[in-house]
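Hi U.,

Before I forget, here's the chain from the pilot set. I'm dumping it here mostly so it's searchable later in email.
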Amino acid sequence: MHRDAAETGDLQALLAQVGAALDQFLRFEHADPVRTNHEWRPRLDTALPLQGIGIEQVTDELITYLIPNGSPVAKPGFTSFITTGGTTASTLASTAASIAAPQRYLLTAFNFLEELSLGWLASMCSIGHLQGVYSSGGSVANLLALGAARQHAFEKVGHDPAAAGVHGRVRVYATREAHHTIQRAAGVLGIGRRAVRPIACDAGGRMEIADLRRVIAEDRQAGVIPMAIVANAGTTNTGAIDPLLAISEVAREHGIWLHIDGAYGLPGILDERKTHLYRGLEHADSVIVDPHKWLGAAVGVAATFVRDRELLRRAFTQEPADYLEGAVHQDAPSPTAEHSLDDFGIPYFDYGIELSAPSRGVVVWALLREIGVEGMRARIVRHNDLALRVADAAREHPNLELLLEPTLSICCFRYVSPDVPNLNRLNQNLHRRLVRENRSLPSTTQVNGKLALRPCFLGARTEVTHADELLADVLRIGAELVSELVANGTKSSENIQSGHNTLNL
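Structure:
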């Protein structure tokens, strides 16, 4: 039977079915999708359909084959990357917006919440002196901030880089701990990835002020334009926070744009034990934060804040199009509007690189309306406490070693044994076996040349039990691997088969 594209079915009933399937998913009783791909892949890997099957059958396939075989990111024991499954409030808000306000523009309630929620977010994070715009994630958020910095640096020497192109050599200063999207942003903005000059870090992964001063002095002597200093308010690697106040003093002394990447760590300011680490934030020219990290939004919500949004407009404005600007009365103040189509509202499309963009403000609004600042503070404190809990265990247990004191909710530690000479390889194999058990799912990183297990606690559903399970799993698997090694009579080069692993120590 021919199915018309306009036939949508009973939305309420269908959403109820999908919601029940998602509730079941959140019990996390299902296997990893790689283990079951022989079941779902053949049912999904079909030819392009010439005739549709209808919305009811599509819903059934969503429930049967997709939802149970989704990502482990939402699991409470997932502590690998700095992302998480969206909370219920995030899901409800984004679902509502996808139908009721599929674009963030026009004079609607959703458009109103874009600016309102940006103000809430800035106030909560103590950057109320800045103006914001939402984007899809930290990659774009950093790009927008550095685009404003580029515009600022060149306008100071009488040049408009967005209109006329980039001329001359510029420099961005960032440590190797800065997120790699900084280099990509430099490439996209036309200043080149090599324009990002690395600044040394101390043993804790924080920017060395003396090296920053030295490098800036060298570049000034060479006639290079210092464009921006990028400081970290919580690195993705270890959660380190650069000395923001000291960096801000250098930036002000030289008239250099100060950008603070707080994509992950900026909400850490809510933990009063950590607030002092953010001194200097008030001097930033731009700051980013990703609500889809620590605040519980589903992936696709980031925010860039700058002192003056007109810099963003000059950096990213699009040329007018008759079908857009000509279709509304933008010259009339919005209070005189008689229809939501009379005005686009705040022109966010001129403050970034997205014309089409979903309503993201409603997600942040829903998150904060649900639990408020104090609820967010409690979550941040809980996650930081989980990192401290793991750190305390690593200090006390003879088979664990703490590699770096936690700053925020990341803890870097490893399993150790006197019977194993290659601890990096041991922990690498331990990590792979840990992941394949599909309960405790941290990532790894390098800390001063040592491979570390690196849980980052930020999921709204992650509790004390999950930190304790991680510790128990690491100790159990580590002991098993060392026992296998000793039983096979090798300490260096023989291979030990360990499930799907080959353990070569």
